[in-house]
Design a protein that fits this description.
Layout: H1 4-7, E1 14-15, H2 18-24, E2 41-44, E3 49-51, H3 54-57, E4 70-71, E5 86-90, E6 96-98, H4 100-106, E7 109-117, E8 142-151, H5 152-158, E9 168-179, E10 182-191, H6 192-195, E11 201-206, E12 209-210, E13 220-222, E14 235-241, H7 248-251, E15 255-256, E16 272-273, E17 280-285, E18 291-292, E19 295-304, E20 310-316, E21 324-325, E22 327-330, E23 339-347, E24 350-360, E25 385-391
Parallel strand pairs: 5-14, 18-25
Antiparallel strand pairs: 1-2, 2-3, 3-4, 5-6, 7-8, 8-11, 9-10, 9-14, 11-12, 11-13, 15-16, 17-19, 19-23, 20-21, 20-24, 22-23, 24-25
The chain binds ligand MTE and molybdenum atom.
Molybdenum atom (MO) binds near residues 71, 118, 120 and 228.
């Protein structure tokens, strides 16, 4: 079993047990997807926030639903598929209510392979620089899945959504979020322009299985390329509107602040919404703190690109002086999926710092130093992933 030391690098976590699952996880009666894995690393039980052990993450190019990280903000709603209706309104010609079978029968099915990644993935690395608010995720708040559903664009067009730049598509969900003294339905929005791209899905299945309750049964949004927060689970309604969703999740959370911002100054400081995720890469094997036998060692991990894809991945074992090009072991024919890379190195005896960096298709790369991208909320930790190991 993975331990805190080898997997989370300083993040506090618990191992989830089957008892935890039976009390916390609501399972949908009509869906029969696989049970959640018992070895997710739990940062918080309520809301349930749990990440995939990274060695396991690297073992399957498509992350099984049961092993997929879970990021909740409230409790998991139990939704009956038969009575389920999705409401669509706002700046549309015809407000509509659609059942799941309406969605499945009226619109062409679409499959998209895409990464889901929390904006807080790898946040734990920022703790070395200064205080960060939020769960201390390691590099396992990410997964790659094949999503099945319909294009949101088709559904919006059928409802006669107004077109126009500057409009937003807001999504509201069935879970209630409790933040400080505030209670509200989970809600976020994306620009209409993004919403009208064909790969943004209203999805009911993940890797060919109905969504598990934890991952949004019966219907969730999947916005490839964007931070996970913009892909609501347990979708209740969609509104086309002039403004971003007026919820604390959209207006206060998941925004990037300047490095000078503190918890106290956050309310008045400028910030930008986090939508597109930057290039990133992580070393999954060996684990941080591992002691390896002298000789050749295989280093393995994942990398994600921007809309320009991943062109190259490099690994260093001297903290970033000399770089060795990794082999791309697996990739899909879409820029939304991750890639798996590996490199075989002959490591001398001693203490080493492994580092990985990726380049996108236009030469862009990751920053070397986490201090350069520190922000008080610990979002977008995309600097070189560094892992200390020992040989001999
Ligand atoms: N309704 C709802 N949707 C949600 C959330 C949530 O708490 N409630 N969390 C978001 C966040 S921050 C992330 S990272 C992803 C995680 O999706 P997963 O739990 O299926 O991995 O869901 C997003 N959608
Ligand atoms: Mo997230």
């Amino acid at each position: 079993m993975p331990t805190r030391r080898t997997v989370l690098q300083g993040a506090s976590c618990l191992l989830v047990t089957h008892t935890t699952w039976s009390t916390l996880a609501a399972s949908a009666a009509t869906a029969a997807p696989t049970e959640p894995a018992s070895d997710l690393l739990v940062h918080s039980k309520l809301p349930l926030n749990a990440e995939t052990p990274i060695a396991k993450l690297r073992s399957s190019f498509v992350t099984p639903q049961a092993d997929f990280y879970i990021r909740d903000h409230g409790t998991v709603p139990k939704i009956d598929e038969t009575g389920y209706r999705l409401k669509i309104g706002g700046k549309v010609e015809t407000p509509v209510e659609l059942s799941l079978s309406d969605l499945k029968s009226r619109f062409p099915e679409r499959n998209v392979m895409a990464v889901m990644q929390c904006a807080g993935n790898r946040r734990a690395d920022m703790v070395d620089v200064g205080y960060v608010e939020g769960d201390l995720w390691g590099p396992g708040a990410i997964g790659n899945a094949e999503w099945t559903g319909v294009s949101l664009a088709d559904v919006l067009s059928a409802a006669g959504a107004e077109d126009g730049t500057g409009l937003h598509v807001a999504f509201f969900a069935h879970d209630e979020v409790v933040m400080k003294d505030d209670r509200f339905d989970y809600g976020v929005s994306i620009p209409l322009e993004k919403a009208m791209t064909p790969d943004v899905l209203l999805a009911w299945a993940m890797n060919g299985e109905p969504l598990m309750a934890e991952h949004g049964f019966p219907l969730r949004v999947v916005v490839p390329g964007y931070a996970g927060t913009r892909s609501p689970k347990w979708l209740a309604s969609i509104m086309v509107q002039d403004e971003e969703a007026d919820t604390p999740i959209q207006r206060k959370e998941y925004r990037l602040f300047p490095p000078t911002t503190t918890k106290e100054s956050a309310d008045k400081d400028p910030n930008v919404v986090i939508n597109d995720m930057p290039s990133n890469a992580a070393i999954c094997i060996p684990a941080a703190g591992a002691t390896l036998k002298p000789g050749t060692t295989k280093i393995e991990g994942y990398a994600i690109g921007t809309q320009n894809g991943v062109a190259k991945v490099e690994v260093s074992y001297d903290g970033g002086e000399i770089w060795h090009e990794a082999t791309i072991d697996k990739q899909a024919d879409t820029q939304w999926a991750w890639i798996f890379w590996s490199v075989v190195l002959d490591l001398p005896t001693g203490q080493h710092q492994l580092a990985v960096r990726s380049f996108d298709g236009v030469g862009g790369s990751q920053p070397d130093d986490i201090a350069k991208i520190w922000n008080w909320k610990g979002y977008l930790a995309y600097s070189w992933h560094r892992v200390s190991i020992r040989v001999g």
